[in-house]
Amino acid sequence: MDNVNEAVSSDKLLEQIFSITQSLYTEMSHPDDDASNDHSAIFRLLTDLGRTLVNADRASFWKWDKRSHELWTTAAVGTGRITIPEGTGLVGKALAEKRTIVTNDPYNHPDFNSDVDKKTGYVTKSILVMPISDCKGEFIGAYQAINKLDNDGKFDVQADTKRLSLAAFICGITLESETFLDDSQHDKLTELKNRMGFYNDYNKNYVKILTDQEAVRCVSLFICDIDFFKKVNDTYGHNAGDEVLRHVAGYLRRNVRICDGVYRWGGEEFIVILPDTGDEEAAEAAERVRQAIMGSVCHFEGMDIKVTMSFGVTQLDPMKSIEDNIKTADEKLYKAKESGRNTVIL
């Protein structure tokens, strides 16, 4: 009878695996018509595959975002997205020590964070965390399975790691592809998103706001550049100029809302896009940034460098292309330059 039950159980597991892999194949076979594709559906399927393979109640796949020094779930089965500082929790420990970690008594483990359980009422009884590497052997994420449903509720570090390896391997390849895409959309010097990142975000997020059929919503942007930036390079050198660009990028990030997008448009030009914001509010936001940068000092190799910026502001017209909208803001930036610089033109 035991052999019969085991055979039925194995057949059921295979059926589940085949079902998930068929969905995975279908998803991966879709033509990538959308440049904003972030593989989220693939991650969800791979996470569910891993959960099935180790017979766990919940599972999540974590990305190590080295740019923001955070770990966050790219997909989670049984819970919402969670973000934690890098190096913390069992996921951070597994990545730091480059090894799979299993605990079947998490509440007595020093690295287990029980905050989520306290908020949701969920009871975590066992955890397996497996670090994931890219093709170079560098760790870029981790797979976490929670609450084993058989084997007396306990994960086996050898057997379950072996079972999980296939899903983890494919997850690693997909995450590496996602990381390459993310890197291509960021400026290496300032770590802001670049022009490609701008168009990706615009098509993925901001167009939806402008074309919302259920509510009247607006989007504004301002384009700005550093006044007399060539003089900075000529006076202090190009390394100092690079530091000024990083300095300005930091002030732009810190002086806008979390929901606003900040981009390096090219050279010393930057764009900030502000969802659900009219032109006057956008001009006020630009003025706050202008004053913050004017009052700041960039320190570089014992030198104190002060710069100012000029701004052109516009509310996006949904009837125009994004290029024409940017051209409108650019014309206002030109007026700011013509009128003496260090000013905001709406």
Describe this structure in words.
Helix 2 runs antiparallel to helix 5 and helix 7 packs across helix 8. By secondary structure, the chain is α+β, with helices and mostly antiparallel strands. Helix 10 links the parallel strand 12 and strand 13. It is 46% helix and 22% strand. The N terminus is likely disordered.
Mean pLDDT: 86
Basic shape = elongated
Structural class: alpha+beta
Number of strands: 13
Classify the oligomer.
Answer: single chain
Contiguous helical run count: 10
Provide the helix percentage: 40-55%
Unreliable stretches, pLDDT < 50, 5 or more residues? Answer: 3-8
User: In what order do the strands lie side by side in the largest sheet?
Assistant: 3-2-1-6-5-4
The secondary-structure element order is HHEEEHEHEEHHEHHEEHEEEHE
If you compute it from the alpha carbons, what radius of gyration comes out, rounded to the nearest whole angstrom? 25 Å
Largest sheet: 6 strands, antiparallel
User: What share of the residues does DSSP label as strand, in percent?
Assistant: 15-25%
Summary tags:
46% helix; 346 residues; disordered N terminus; alpha+beta; 6-stranded antiparallel sheet; 5-stranded mixed sheet
